[in-house]
């Protein structure tokens, strides 16, 4: 019931946000900049409240999960299944983006003009080309406290896995006080989640009203071809994910969707899949997933399993090439796909990560990186769809791995 109340409040906030943003954009044009900046603070407050608890939640749940598994074979098995899912899902998403952008060719004969590239200058400067050194630096933490301070989920995951494995090596009597302390910490943080989530409707209102006030509704007509092709891509990706989910979970898929409807809507409205991470932990456990599987698979998914973002990367990169009249051969596009597969893994948790990866990839393939300015006006709305898709992909992967693992345990018990 609580979940439904929150869901209804978010829907109402979404409608109010769209109406408020529209009124400001068309009736009070002098106030657009001030209004957008100030009302966006509501979204910022909500997202910062959530970010505040992500690091302690990932650390405490993951360490407890691994220490309770005890068996290192199980850690390896779950990790192997998770990575196999993530790599397969990423390749399918990237390939889908590539196929659709070639089929619809939204960049060919477009009416979109590139008069001002200044909006893209910051992104172009921030993006570093892919290098093994940068990737390693991003994955392996220099300091746990730095990783905590900057909310580097992947780095926290690496430290937590090592800490959990080391803790599991101790006897149960020696490890018990630390496990108990971290287990209690995790439950306290999840209690905080239940309070913070009630600020989500305000966050939704702020984020949506700010975006609509700034861009208005005309942006949808100008980018109709681009948005149409992208929306079809997202729908096809959802169909694939849900079909795979149904094959694995059967009718329980609908129970899962019912459980995660609020996180999906929050991610859609705030363009942040990270903002719903704590809520996802709570809902997946309520769905019946084992806490040790959720605490291990979900943080990994947030670093390696961003299906919506993946599809968008090939879609946006080839769209920019089309606008500039650059014809890329299929082998070139497949090479780009593999480069995106690698580069995207090193930017989890970076704001506007998808755009930074697109800029870096365009530069590598001789596509003018300032072309990113073409898609900036509509990116917020595309980000809504890709954030929601990332959340769906991570919920399905966690539920699927939990089911496979439960079957493995049953088989082992029967032997």
List the helices and strands and how they pair.
Blueprint: H1 2-27, H2 32-69, H3 72-104, H4 118-126, H5 132-139, H6 144-149, H7 153-168, H8 172-196, H9 200-215, H10 218-222, H11 224-249, H12 252-259, H13 261-270, H14 277-287, H15 291-304, H16 307-323, H17 330-343, H18 353-364, H19 376-414
Membrane topology: Multi-pass membrane protein
Protein name: Na+/H+-dicarboxylate symporter
Pfam families: SDF
Give an account of the 3D structure:
The chain is mainly α and about 425 residues long. The chain has a single domain, classed as Sodium:dicarboxylate symporter (Proton glutamate symport protein). Helix content is about 80%, strand content about 0%. It is built from 19 helices and no strands. Helix 3 runs parallel beside helix 15 and helix 14 packs antiparallel against helix 15. The two termini are about 40 Å apart. The model has no long low-confidence stretch (mean pLDDT about 85).
